[in-house]
Write a structure and sequence with these properties.
about 200 residues, Rossmann fold, 7-stranded mixed beta sheet, two-stranded antiparallel ribbon, about 35% helix
């Protein structure tokens, strides 16, 4: 069965992060379900820089479904919305407790993961100007960081989204598929070895 990934989205999400993650996972034949995490029935969200995305479903309609991974693309406004949404936080805890992958980019590791102390022993990275919100001995200065024990994947921001997505593909499928996607994008093969 193909891996299934829940991509949490909301108004103010970082455009590049939202679109790139969905695109690359789809190229790898990984099932993506995008969701608007606000408590509305609207399926249209407006990203931080104006890109409009039609999500697959609202969170309330799929909250009880099982996923192999949950991803929080960043953007400060979006990260605050995730942080304040009890359904999102409970879903993260559910995946964490089931030893499944949770990924967070940009502001989300600091604003959501660290704020709620969801992974107190995990190493992580985040948008550099927010690193003070992460426990000093757990912050890793790196474009992406995967804490294998916690199954937590984090990235610094829009410029690291491809590397983040390729690592996610490697974790959910395998390294060969991640390398194939990197090759399709005309990226150096060693981008996979650096993650």
């Amino acid at each position: 069965m193909l891996p299934k990934v829940l991509i949490c989205l909301t108004n103010g999400v970082e455009d590049i992060e939202a679109v790139t993650i969905i695109d690359l996972l789809n190229r790898a034949k990984i099932t993506t379900i995008s969701t608007n995490v606000t408590n509305t029935d609207t399926l249209i969200i407006t990203c931080a820089y104006g890109t409009k995305i039609i999500v697959d479903v609202t969170l309330s309609k799929i909250i009880t479904k099982e996923f192999d991974a949950l991803i929080l693309p960043g953007g400060l406004e979006a990260s605050k919305t995730y942080r304040d949404n009890e359904l999102v936080i409970n879903k993260i805890k559910e995946l964490r407790d089931a030893k499944k992958i949770v990924g967070a980019l940009c502001a989300s590791p600091a604003i959501v993961i660290a704020y709620h102390n969801l992974y107190p022993d995990a190493n992580m990275t985040c948008y550099p100007q927010l690193n003070h919100k992460i426990n000093n001995n757990k912050f890793i200065e790196s474009p992406i960081c995967y804490d294998e024990k916690a199954k937590l994947l984090t990235g610094q921001g829009p410029g690291t989204t491809i590397e983040f997505s390729l690592k996610l593909i490697e974790l959910l499928s395998n390294k060969k598929i991640a390398q194939k996607i990197a090759s399709q994008l005309i990226l150096p093969i060693n981008i996979i070895n650096n993650t």
